[in-house]
Prior knowledge:
54% of the residues lie in helices and 19% in strands. By secondary structure, it is of the alpha+beta class. The protein is globular, with a radius of gyration of 27 Å.
Amino acid sequence: MADMVREVERKYEATDDTELPDLHVKGVATVTDRGHATLRAVYWDTADSRLAADGVTLRRRTGGTHEGWHLKLPAGPHTRDEYRVPLAASPPRTLTALVRSRARTEPLEPIVELTSERHTFHLQDAEGTLLAEVSRDTVTATRLGTDDTPTAHWTEIEAELADGPPELLERVGKRLRKAGLRPSRAASKLQRALDETGGTPPSSEPGPPPTPRNAGDHVLAYVRTQVRALVALDPAVRRNQPDSVHRMRVATRRLRSCFRSHRAVLDRSTTDALGEELRWLAAELGQDRDREVLMDRLLDHLAHLPRPLRLGPVRTRLHTYDRARRTRSRRSVTAVLDGRRYLALLDALADLLADPPLRPAAAKPAERVLARAVRRDTARLDARVREALAAPAGDARDQALHRARKAAKRARYAAEVARPALGKPAAKHVERTTALQRLLGDHHDGVVARAALRDLAQQAHDAGEHSFTYGVLYEQERTLAQGYERDLPAARRAATEHRF
């Protein structure tokens, strides 16, 4: 497994004769000259620079204190998560897995070699703690894989935070700018190397997005945002980072819902097949997310149960039940993300954005086309909730309420697409349909919890343990379900009173 460090840094353009100013800014007691080092790095990417286009870098570096393979993923402004593994001849699988959603089936190959003559200074406090590191790099970049091997040369100043406060970089930056340095126009050395050797990658964000003009622009902007989220969350899911599976699953559902709600804009002969693949992916991801939701709910209810009602090793059995299901679902998720079907889906989504299957309605005013879709999905939601409330109590009503929950998500996501065009009315509709969706979601979670509690009670009984507590929790869930159903009519009215 790779080690991960959070990198927060700023880069500044310099010249060969640039001298660093005094770096004793507020909080810095000593500035220590750490001498010179030669760093050599070979950057790997696809032939069409897919990683660089997303601000991702994969390199093999020798020299200095951190030799090895480094993968850097964007984590915010001036911030990247850097994953490190020891030196090897070729890119380690640990790191190539984290870029698979971007590279997909394209092979990785060396594209740029950088040699940096680095002069480093450590900024320390009075106790000797390293607060930040400032280095002066004289860089030579060589483009690989071309007949003429173009090169580029430049000098830059890099300020990287260590254990200092975030505002320290602002103070250092102010001192550097006062000395005549300006922030670098390139986000990374690789980006500058590609720019200056004629290898500028097709940027996923070439500048501020254009203002949407019609219905097609709004729908495609929403699709693009969700595809980016899907791709960017892949490494987090592989690393089992908190809430990553849930967020990735939401992105798949938003995409599928968008395709279904806006068939007047995007041709369903293309999007229907994509929607089915997105449904498959959401279901695969759901195994892990549903487990998380279930265990959080049961453990929370158990914690609030009076101690006299907690008989037997209930918490231990809950954790054992969760652990068995987690091991199975984690293996399943990783296999899905490594599979051809998932990569083919990502390729198909990229193709859709590159050549959108727009219908005539895409060129019409967004206000009219998108509002019509929201009204249609809201009417569908209203009918589903009415149908559920009229169903007999028990399994029939539970299933009908689950269908209503899906309809609430679709109405909410349709309004999300329309919000930039319709403004406050759409924002209010998102808020109200979200509240209804959560109510229906709580009801569904309770249905799932009751089924799990029956299984747990049977397991406890077979093991000779008390099963009383599971019965108490089961009855608690039944009472909660009745409360959710009482609140539904008011929530339905609020969510379906749209004004567009």
